[in-house]
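Need Type IV pilus assembly protein PilP's 3D structure for a figure. Predict it.
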Amino acid sequence: MISNHHNRTGRGLNTRVVCAIAAATVVLYSIADSRAQQPTPTLTCEAEVVRISQALQIAHQPALCELCGKRLARTLDSLYRLGVLPTFYASADSANWDDPQRRPTMMSGRSLAGIPDGAELLADIDSGFGPRGIHRLRYTPSNRPLAITTADRSVSIPLVPCTPGSAP
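Structure prediction for Type IV pilus assembly protein PilP:
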């Protein structure tokens, strides 16, 4: 007579055990996959400005002045949240301001924006008072921030998207 190996007890894995192991494996992979897909926490715009200022110093460039940093945080906040530049920017076309060292009275407290740079645009990062600074915000025509660059374009620091913090 031919023996039937499949009916013997104690040999091989129990079907319930195999199913339990498979179910546990699926659950573990699902948990790992959901954690991998969760977005990483983003910086506040103020923290992004600190990161940019540190990167400028590492690149042997002047750090952002305190007022410049506050204005940059407000600018990034406005661009990411509203999709527009803040009201302290004036169009480079309408400003008629060619001398970077002498800010016209009508431009007191305002900075230049919309400066053509190939397919992209530049906006000054300065205090809005005194001479123009050397730092520029590079952004797309659809107002998506890209990088902070120097006026001579020798240094460019890509931006990390940020969330509004305590910027007024």
